[in-house]
What we know:
Layout: H1 3-21, H2 32-35, H3 68-103, H4 110-141, H5 144-157, H6 160-163
Helix pairs in contact: 1-3, 3-4
Amino acid sequence: MNIKSECLAIFILASFVLGGAWAGQDSKEGHPAQAAGAGAHPSMKEKPPHAHSGSKHFTPHWSSTLTEDQKLKVDQMHIGLSRAETVYKTGRLFELAKLNALITEDNPNQREIEEMIAIIADMERALLNVRYQHLAEMRAILTREQRISYDMAVLGRGGVDKAVGGH
């Protein structure tokens, strides 16, 4: 079995093992915040109006205006994202450990090193795709008004304001 086949087999196995660890967590009843009677999801707590918190935003924060249906969908999407991220991150760590072991050999094979780096880069690319698909799915369930705040938060994550001088 070559390195790529071995990595793929381990990745698929990890997907099944880790996917089963969250079985039954797709409902609100399984959500820790709901089970404890804590009310809204921790990330959905009321936030002060942007205009009064030193920010340039005048619309309410998108998470403070979610309907109950939207909250359920957001939680379900976050569970799916967490599952996918865990699988990719675990696989990436495993591949990095193999790469480090390969590098420490007396005569490391440069071709194998390049293949391992390509595998890790593919995992990073796949993880980035999952994260941005999640952002698009999140945006799709929001109303036009909620998207304003959400879009401002997404654009602010990359330091766009800081990179171009803000206003």
